[in-house]
Structure formats: structure tokens, C-alpha cells
Write a structure and sequence with these properties.
single chain; alpha/beta; D-Maltodextrin-Binding Protein, domain 2; 6-stranded mixed beta sheet; two-stranded antiparallel sheet; 7 helices; 8 strands; 18% strand
Length: 206
């Protein structure tokens, strides 16, 4: 129903939203007492991991990190350069097992779409297919640029051990279970959707 009035061109999402902090985080226990800027799903993740979520707009985060109002933030790595967080954090934690992404969409008004000739619609659909891949590459490229930027400033990348990453993943598992329950209550195939997402992620992580 959310898309009843629009024609979907394509869907996409940014790279993994992970943790960027002013002090090192090597294990779950290190997060205790830390104030982490986050919103939406990221706030649920931060709370589940034992830190304190602090909601604020992206535009206010640099100053908050600089002044110590918060100890870190969750976001894709592109924020390290795009939002200049690499200037005010020292560590990026690769907590991929408990990361998040934000679903985004490109749509056209349904009435406008229906007014277009079939040959024009076909051309747009072909372009959409091209841009799905292009959009993904752009997200990958700016994440890499953010990572390179923070490393060049002398900041550290902390890679969690497989066992530690699994600990973090276990802590956020109830969030996924909540999603499945909410979808089931609405008569939607949440379990199937989640299974597809996870299988796809695991496939491309190999």
C-alpha cells in the first residue's frame, strides 16, 4: 500500500552503518556508559549493545563529537569524510554483525507514469536497471573514500574478532525477532523477507 500511488524506479540502501568513537571499543563491555549519537533502527541497536542512544540530526553530530557531548556515532563510513567525522573521532569499529542500513527509494508519481507512452516507460525501466548497479557502486566508493580519509588522519580501524562479532550479533537478534513478529501480526511474510536479506548478505560477504 505504501507504493500504491507511485511507480517504483529502484530501491537502494547505504553501506553498513557501523560505530565511530573517540575511544577504542574492542568488546561489548567497552560500550557501557558511552553516549552514541543514533536514530531509528541504529538507536535500537545501540541500546541492545548496552550503550546510551542520543538522538540528534547528522548536521549537529560533528560539533557534539568535538565537544564531547557524545562519545561516538553510528553511520556508514562515508560520514568520516562527507560529514568530516574523521576529524573528531579516533576509531572506527567494524561491527558488521550488528550494523544497519537505511532503505531508500526512487519513485515516480503513478499518474505521471501512466501518462507516458509504453516505449518511454521501457526506456526508463532499462535506465533504472543500470542505475541500481551504479547507485550501489557509488555507496561503495564513498564508503572507501571515508575509510581512506580517516586512516590518512591517523585514526584506527578496529576489527572485532569473529567470536566478539558474534556476541554483538547475538545482542541485536531480538530486534530481528521483533521485526518478524510485527510483520506476522500484519499478515506479511516477515520471516521469509528477513531470511532472503540475510542469505543475500552472507552470499556477497564471502
Amino acid at each position: 500500500k505504501e507504493f500504491d500511488d507511485v511507480q517504483v524506479m529502484y530501491l537502494h540502501g547505504h553501506g553498513p552503518g557501523i560505530l565511530h568513537t573517540k575511544k577504542p571499543v574492542n568488546k561489548l563491555e567497552d560500550l557501557k556508559g558511552m553516549k552514541i549519537r543514533c536514530t531509528g533502527m541504529a538507536a535500537k541497536i545501540v541500546a541492545a549493545l548496552g550503550a546510551t542512544p542520543v538522538a540528534m540530526p547528522m548536521g549537529e553530530t560533528y560539533d557534539a563529537l568535538s565537544r564531547g557531548v557524545v562519545d561516538g556515532s553510528m553511520a556508514p563510513q562515508e560520514a568520516l569524510q562527507g560529514w568530516k567525522w574523521g576529524e573528531v573521532v579516533k576509531y572506527t569499529i567494524e561491527n558488521f554483525g550488528s550494523s544497519y542500513s537505511t532503505g531508500m527509494f526512487v519513485v515516480m508519481n503513478k499518474s505521471k507514469w501512466n501518462s507516458l507512452p509504453p516505449d518511454v516507460q521501457k526506456i526508463i525501466e532499462q535506465i533504472n536497471e543500470e542505475y541500481i548497479e551504479k547507485q550501489g557502486k557509488v555507496w561503495d566508493e564513498i564508503d572507501k573514500a571515508g575509510r581512506d580519509y580517516t586512516i590518512a588522519r591517523g585514526n584506527k580501524i578496529i576489527t572485532l574478532s569473529p567470536d566478539e562479532d558474534q556476541r554483538w550479533e547475538k545482542m541485536v537478534r531480538p530486534i530481528l525477532n521483533e521485526y518478524k513478529k510485527n510483520m506476522k501480526d500484519k499478515g506479511l511474510p516477515g520471516e521469509e523477507v528477513l531470511s532472503f536479506y540475510l542469505q543475500t548478505i552472507y552470499k556477497y560477504q564471502k
